[in-house]
Amino acid sequence: MILRGSDQRLGATWDGDGVNFALFSEHAEAVELCLFDSQGNETARLRLPDRTGDVWHGFVPGCKPGQRYGYRVYGRYDPVSGFRFNPSKLLVDPYARALGGALRWRPEVFGFDSSRPADLSLKNTADSAPFVPKSVVVGTSPKPRPGVRVPWAETTIYETHVRGFTMRHAAVPDADRGTFRGMRNREVLSYLKSLGITTVELMPIHAFIDEHFLHERGLTNYWGYNSIGFFAPSSRYLGSGPIDECREMIDAIHDAGLELILDVVYNHTAEGNHLGPTLSFRGIDNSSYYRLMPGNASEYINDTGTGNTINADHPQVRRLILDSLCYWVEDMGVDGFRFDLAAVLGRTATGYHREHPFFLEIEKEPSLAGIKLIAEPWDVGPGGYQLGQFPPRWAEWNDRYRDGVRRLWRGDDGKLGEFANVYSASADRFDTSGRGPWASINFVASHDGFALADLVSYEHRHNEANGEENRDGHQHNYSHNYGVEGPTDDVSLQSLRRRQRLNMLATVLLSQGTPMLLAGDELGNSQAGNNNAYCQDNEIGWLDWSGLDADPAFLRQIRKLIRLRANLPLLRQRVHLHGRRRSAAGFHDIDWLGPDGKQLSPEQWQHIRAMTVLLCDTRSGSGADDVHAVAVLFNTVDDSVTMRLPRVGPSGRWFSVFSTVDGEQELLPEGGEFVLSGRSLACLIFAERLSRELQTLEATHHARPPPV
Question: Domains along the chain?
Answer without folding.
Answer: 153-280+312-501+518-560 (3.20.20.80), 578-702 (2.60.40.1180)
